[in-house]
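Why should sequence recovery work at all? Because a backbone constrains its sequence more than one might expect. Tight turns favour small or flexible residues, buried strands favour hydrophobic ones, and helices have their own preferences. The token representation captures these environments compactly. In the example below, the structure is given first.
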């Protein structure tokens, strides 16, 4: 499993890289098929945010859904521990979900036709392909990522939203073929908004990251 460590507006020393690799060895136990873990370390220079000046983002690139976690702290070692705790919990949730699906798989009747491929989940075209642009002459910076959007159920969309730790998730509804967004409300309550437009081709959707 490859571990890629990058700094965003900050330098990452070899000592910290070695510490990251040692810590992330636990991930392989829960995600043995993981191909790569992307680690992005960033530093906030605003003195008013000294208590959360160090941010660590972890992204597991696997054959299944992308699993992501991030955390902030006053030093990057603490931020790594917090982010890793979230990541391991989401990896356990993924493992348990797979076990539950295997245990409840009904016996299918014999069919001579070749099996249909399982629907793909939303995966990034390139996990590193984030584009930042400035809005005109203003100081506003817009960060964009492009993801391939394959049809999925609302249940799968909520599941993947939890895995990446976002408050919303864009997807194509498998039942209606409508561009939709699932979002978190209070507690364990969720909402879904759908656009009144049918999708006739494999679209690309931008997912917040």
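From this structural description, the recovered sequence reads:
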């Amino acid at each position: 499993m490859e571990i890629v460590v990058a700094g965003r507006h900050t330098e990452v020393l070899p000592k910290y890289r070695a510490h990251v690799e040692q810590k992330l060895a636990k991930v392989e136990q829960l995600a043995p098929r993981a191909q790569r873990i992307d680690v992005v370390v960033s530093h906030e220079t605003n003195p008013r945010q000294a208590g959360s000046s160090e941010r660590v983002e972890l992204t597991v690139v696997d054959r299944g859904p992308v699993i992501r976690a991030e955390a902030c702290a006053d030093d990057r070692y603490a931020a790594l521990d917090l982010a890793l705790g979230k990541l391991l919990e989401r990896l356990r949730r993924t493992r348990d979900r797979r076990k539950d699906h295997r245990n409840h798989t009904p016996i299918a009747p014999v069919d001579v036709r070749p099996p249909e491929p399982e629907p793909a989940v939303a995966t990034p075209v390139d996990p590193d392909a984030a584009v930042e642009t400035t809005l005109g002459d203003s100081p506003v910076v817009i960060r964009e990522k492009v993801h391939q959007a394959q049809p999925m159920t609302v249940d799968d969309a909520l599941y993947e939203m939890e895995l990446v730790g976002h408050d919303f998730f864009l997807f194509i509804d498998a039942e209606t073929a409508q561009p939709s967004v699932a979002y978190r409300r209070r507690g364990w309550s969720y909402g879904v908004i759908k656009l009144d437009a049918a999708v006739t081709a494999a679209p690309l959707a931008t997912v917040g990251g």
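A few observations help interpret the result. Confidence is low (pLDDT under 50) at residues 107-128.
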